[in-house]
Design goal:
The protein is an alpha/beta fold and about 375 residues long. The protein has helices at about 50-60, 115-120, 130-135, 160, 165-175, 190-200, 215-220, 230-240, 260-270, 285-300, 305-310, 330-345; strands at about 1-5, 40-45, 65, 75, 85-90, 90, 120-125, 145-150, 180-185, 205-210, 245-250, 275-280. The chain is globular, with a radius of gyration of 21 Å.
Length: about 375
């Protein structure tokens, strides 16, 4: 079996093999390639037997690490929908493979597919800690709400060996710069020796994203993320370490996971979460096609129902990028979900006032020269 990049459709229906789910990966295919190109990738039949095709589908596709060179590591934004204006992303692409990930389209800028490429072609920023030190040392830098790993998870599997997130945290702790982390990974517990002291100084808080409590669904929807129970256990570990921790029921997928909303919040609260958030699934650009492929592959009996429910929250479309609507949706179904969320937050005590991180401790310039 060979993989070819073709600027045209297969000559006949027999030329292209059907897309198959790959073991340990969320996307079913690499199509569409991306919105800036007109080429798709197809698997072509070169005479393999049906048994060999099955072996190919079951085979793990290796992750390839590349280097992303950057002049700056702090990314700024002015979005009115989010409560921070800067973030740090040590990696481009994410091995977790969550089929709904809103960051997938960013791989199109690299001339790669938001599908399998996004999960297997990971670009690390090896000089991120040095760049961060340089930016925080600038005489005109002023601290503000900082998120670590907001586009792709800072604790994705490759962090185990790359240690970029840990090194970034060491710089932030040295400068006493507050930071918040959102993750799906239990790997965050590795860095409790840094995070717990930062939290005690009012410099750190965290959120765990929990989409479903169904282990089987999570296995195909978020194949390389921590299992749902591991995430709940991580909330407990962070809470016991004195870290203000919340839960994000995100994204909620109408017709697939939204019935679990209360159960997710209850489990997180019992584990020590103080606050909760919720967002609706977002399907910008190529994600629409990838998500539809995934539905028909893994939950074919519910695919049409899920897509129709999403349209009911998006004015008849699969996505509405309008600020103020893109995170929450509109219509009766979206309104009902929001009411359920508000009631559950109060019922489970997840309405603790938001932890205010302390920006007054920031050591500007060269922290080694600052007075203690």
């Amino acid at each position: 079996m060979s993989i070819h990049r073709l600027p045209f459709a297969p000559r006949t229906e027999d030329d292209a093999l059907p897309d198959l789910a790959r073991k340990g990966r969320g996307s079913v295919s690499n199509r569409p390639s991306h919105r800036f190109g007109n080429a798709d990738r197809y698997a072509l039949d070169d005479g393999w037997s049906d048994h060999e095709r099955e072996d190919w589908a079951k085979a793990r596709r290796a992750t390839v690490l590349g280097v992303d060179t950057a002049r700056r590591i702090i990314t700024r934004n002015t979005s009115p929908d989010i409560g921070f204006d800067r973030s740090i992303n040590p990696y481009k692409g994410c091995e977790h493979g969550c089929i709904y990930c809103f960051a997938r389209p960013s791989h199109a800028y690299l001339d790669l597919s938001p599908g399998i490429d996004f999960e297997t072609r990971i670009f690390r920023k090896p000089d991120a800690p040095d760049l961060l030190r340089k930016e925080l040392s600038a005489h005109n830098y002023r601290p503000g709400p900082m998120m670590l790993g907001i586009n792709t998870d800072a604790y994705q599997p490759t962090e185990r060996t790359e240690l970029l997130t840990r090194r970034i945290l060491e710089v932030l702790a040295e400068f006493r710069h507050p930071v918040h982390i959102v993750t799906k990974s239990a790997l965050i517990q590795r860095d409790l020796d840094i995070l717990a002291p930062m939290a005690a100084q009012g410099l750190f808080s965290a959120s765990l994203s929990v989409t479903t409590l169904d282990r089987d669904l999570a296995r195909v929807m978020e194949p390389r993320a921590a299992t749902p129970q591991r995430r709940i256990d991580t909330i407990r570990a962070l809470s016991q370490a004195g870290i203000p921790v919340g839960v994000l029921a995100a994204p909620m997928i109408p017709g697939l996971t939204d019935h679990e909303l209360e159960a997710i919040l209850k489990a997180a609260a019992e584990a020590g979460a103080r606050r909760a958030g919720m967002t609706l699934i977002r399907l910008p650009h190529e994600i629409k096609t990838l998500f539809e492929e995934w539905l028909h592959q893994h939950v074919p009996g519910s695919a049409d129902k899920v897509l129709n429910r999403i349209r009911q929250t998006r004015g008849g479309e699969l996505y509405d990028a309008t600020f103020g609507k893109r995170m929450t949706g509109t219509g009766q179904h979206a309104d009902l979900m929001r009411r359920r969320f508000d009631l559950a937050v109060r019922r489970f005590g997840l309405d603790v006032p938001r932890t205010r991180l302390d920006y007054s401790q920031f050591r500007g310039g060269d922290p080694q020269m600052s007075l203690l």
